[in-house]
Design brief:
By secondary structure, this protein is α/β, with parallel strands linked by helices. It is built from seven helices and 14 strands. The chain has a ten-stranded mixed beta sheet with strand order 1-2-4-3-7-8-9-12-11-10, with helices on both faces.
Length: 290
């Protein structure tokens, strides 16, 4: 999968975000200096947070061209973060031709630029650890589209930092670098996604092949639990492959006729962010929490 930047259409860029130069007007945005580059992030601290208790962290990555002010609005997880007492962080990708992006691979042609996003996230986690009382065994990564790719990249290349991953309308770009321990994986994807096709193409692996990779890597059950519901005009097929090594699972919400979006789901009364947190909350870096 080479030169993935040129594959993502301009229509997609404009669909879900503003130009980077118009972004980040939120006064709550913080920054740090990584390798001489000012990197920004938006942090939500739950109302019940106390520095005497270590809490989980969820990193939520915007898509290509996105900005954290807009993304935190439509991919909002603040309510569930407040209810469940975890710190929610929206990191900001770097500017390239006035659009922001993430590099989900090691340096090479699979990346969009030379920005060291893995190093930035590693420094961000160190900064969060210094500023707040966080549970280092319960740091999770999720994201939309290019942000989902970044989440998978962290799981593959920084697996000792990330306890579990969730990808919405995204793809995993690499299978030659894998975690050194079992990893819970959740994918949410629409069958009518015109940017990152559900069935894959020459540039992106199919959703099923990615799920199959993680089922095999984690040694899960071969037969899943499954459930299908119809809500809001969409048929949602849920499958869960359980009992992997360290108790991890590989789970999937297949949105029939769903497009390329952060879905406004209502699955058994839970929206997308709530489904992601319910999945994350079962695991820490060592696997299933007993």
């Amino acid at each position: 999968m080479k030169n993935i930047l040129v594959i993502i259409s301009i229509s997609f860029l404009c669909l879900n975000c503003k130009k980077f130069k118009e972004a980040n007007k939120n006064p709550n945005i913080q920054s740090l200096n990584h390798n001489g580059v000012i990197r920004e992030y938006l942090t939500f601290i739950p109302s019940n947070y106390k520095d005497t208790q270590a809490v989980p962290v969820v990193l939520n990555f915007h898509g290509f061209g996105g900005n954290i002010s807009d993304y935190s609005t439509y991919a909002s997880m603040e309510r569930i973060a407040d209810l469940e007492n975890f710190i929610l962080v929206y990191p900001q990708g770097t500017d390239m031709d006035e659009f922001s992006h993430w590099n989900p691979s090691l340096p090479g042609s699979d990346n969009k630029s030379s920005a060291d996003d893995f190093g930035f996230i590693e420094m961000l986690i160190e900064k969060l650890s210094a500023d707040y009382s966080i549970d280092a065994k319960r740091i999770y990564a999720c994201g939309f589209s290019n942000g989902g790719m970044m989440s998978f990249g962290l799981v593959n290349h920084k697996s000792d930092l990330i306890a579990a991953v969730a990808c919405v309308s995204g793809s995993m770009l690499e299978t030659d670098n894998t975690p050194n321990h079992p990893k819970p994986v959740l994918m949410i994807h629409g069958t009518s996604d015109g940017v990152i096709p559900y069935i894959g193409n020459n540039d992106y692996t199919s959703v099923e092949s990615t799920l199959s990779f993680w089922r095999n890597f984690n040694s899960t059950d071969s037969t899943p639990y499954s459930n299908t519901i119809t809500t809001g005009g969409n048929s949602i097929e849920y499958t869960s492959y359980s009992n992997g090594n360290n108790g991890v699972s590989v789970e999937h919400y297949k949105i029939n006729q769903g497009g390329h979006e952060w879905f406004n789901l209502n699955y058994e009364g839970k929206n997308t962010g709530e489904l992601i947190w319910n999945f994350f909350s079962k695991y820490d870096i060592d696997g299933l929490i007993e």
